[in-house]
Design a protein that fits this description.
5 strands, alpha/beta, globular
Length: about 400
């Protein structure tokens, strides 16, 4: 049973929600609050898994409510209901809301969203993991800029010009995308200086994934050294691009998800390092001094690993299941029980190839591939060929 609290200052809307969701009463235990103050009173005495709130409310608006919920009840999944006219107000909720739904909300979309975010407990059911995530001072939310991109890219005929205009709203992301498109990754002889041209060159799907990664990274930049993020970004983009190349050779329909998953495969590592720096320093010292793996060290310190944390957050954002799975199991793909090539396969292979070639991240004695997994898929020889050909991107 999922415990959900709905918040709105309009009694008629709350009544409508009750009628609309009546069919879910055997799966959801629902509470209703007429505004932010009443919602906090309910939360102080009632267990809640998910809170769904209107944005524009008198007294305490949705952003203020979610700020309070994040501080007092960080384990609760926070979903904002908003209208397009409330866009400026929604910006206030960036960082405090996990998901955004448009008003009026389609009941099937609401049901699907709630069930998916709660379904994460089945994929990553360890209570220690949820407890750990709830302790993080900053749990990144899906960047609003990426939400706008998803909306545009979901149209039957998305506009490259519109996508470029969305990106231009964030100067930092524009600079980084232009820097990337002009880097050695793509080996261009002529520099690109316009975001619209960058969109045309990279393609809409790649731009969407890059912007998601950049949006996540930017939420932490002010708290961690530039060198850390430069190394993280370079490695993440390398894995993403190599995973894209591998997937393109096997199943082009999976290439974009492989790129996104590769780009975000170490999301949990940066979130842990930034939010719990002392604890993560202990992880680093254990790896260096005791010679154990990152995963063993993280398990000792957090009772969870960075792939689990990253996948949990990616699931909260509503990224495709294949992407969440690849983030969760990129270093241990056998645990996913897949029987065919998926984005996980591409990300695992790319990570292994680049991991071995990186002296700073080398793990003596650890094989580059999960050979049991690749043998089951009939891809062990092909994986060795990927490595032998050195599918480098830098």
């Amino acid at each position: 049973m999922i415990d959900i609290l709905f918040v709105d200052d309009e009694p008629n809307i709350l009544a409508g929600l009750q009628r609309m969701l009546r069919s879910m009463r055997h799966e959801w235990k629902m509470s209703f609050a007429n505004g932010g103050t009443e919602a906090l009173e309910i939360l102080s005495t009632t267990h809640v898994d998910v809170i769904v709130s209107d944005m524009k409310m008198p007294g305490m608006d949705g952003a203020q409510l979610f700020d309070a919920v994040r501080e007092k009840f960080p384990q609760i999944v926070r979903i904002i209901l908003s209208g397009y006219s409330e866009k400026e107000m929604i910006m206030k909720s960036v960082g405090s809301a996990h998901r955004y739904l448009s008003k009026p909300c389609d009941p099937d979309q609401l049901k699907s969203t709630v069930n998916k975010v709660c379904g994460l407990r089945k994929l990553l059911s360890d209570a220690h993991l949820r407890e750990l995530v709830s302790q993080l001072p900053t749990v990144p939310s899906l960047p609003l800029l990426y939400s706008d991109l998803v909306e545009e890219l979901s149209k039957p005929e998305p506009s490259s010009k519109k996508v470029g205009q969305i990106i231009k709203q964030d100067i930092g992301m524009t600079v980084k995308i232009l820097h990337l498109v002009n880097s050695a990754f793509f080996g261009r002889s002529r520099r690109i200086t316009d975001s619209n041209e960058a969109v045309d060159f990279l393609g809409l799907d790649t731009i969407g994934s890059l912007t998601l990664g950049l949006g996540v990274i930017s939420q932490f930049e002010s708290q961690t050294s530039a060198a850390f993020f430069a190394e993280l970004w370079e490695h993440s983009v390398s894995v993403g691009l190599l995973a894209f190349k591998i997937a393109s050779g096997e199943d082009k329909s999976l290439a974009n998800d492989a790129f996104t998953a590769g780009l975000l495969h170490d999301l949990g590592k940066v979130v842990l390092a930034v939010n719990l720096p002392q604890e993560y320093t202990s992880v680093i010292n254990r790896v260096r001094n005791a010679g154990i793996s990152w995963f063993d060290a993280e398990r000792q310190v957090f009772d969870a690993t960075h792939p689990e944390v990253g996948a949990y957050l990616a699931g909260l954002w509503g990224l495709p299941t294949a992407v969440v799975e690849a983030i969760a199991f990129h270093d241990s793909p056998s645990e996913a029980y897949n029987t065919s090539f998926t984005p996980l396969t591409a990300v695992h292979a790319a990570h292994a190839i680049l991991h071995v070639s990186s002296q700073s991240e080398s793990k003596p004695g650890e094989p580059p591939f999960d050979l049991d997994y690749l043998n089951d898929l009939g891809l062990s020889e092909k994986a060795q060929l990927w490595a032998a050909k050195q599918l480098t991107i830098v």
